[in-house]
Amino acid sequence: MAEQQSAPVTTAPTELWVERTGTRAYTGRSSRGAEVLVASQGVPGAFTPGELLKIALAACTGLSSDLPLSRRLGDDFDATIRVSGDADRENEVYPQFDEVVELDLSELDEAARERLLVTVERAVDKVCTVGRTLKAGTKVTLSFDIDA
Fold this sequence. Notes:
Layout: E1 16-22, E2 25-30, E3 35-39, H1 49-73, E4 79-84, E5 98-103, H2 110-127, H3 129-136
Antiparallel strand pairs: 1-2, 2-3, 4-5
């Protein structure tokens, strides 16, 4: 009997865009139906672009560390990743981001904690695409599609 092969599963890349919704206010959207409000600092209920960059870094760290942490702590562990970093307004860059992963590791002895933290740090360094991109730098291109 011949072995059946299933067709490879292909998923279209997620499309991302922002639409202007007001003065210095945009809604970020994805083709998967997600939305996020983006505006100037001080606008209630909206993130600034810099805040979203920091959130993306913290979320990537969380997702990258989830598997090694859940293997050791179980699927229901609590974690919070705090991220900070002030903008250098003279140069309009963020020179540094600082992340702090908050975990309850009180059930582990010191050696087990150290092993777990080394494993988590390696996982984040290996698979956190956002962190890796920020550390390496990236090329950004800008083009225009205009109605004339």
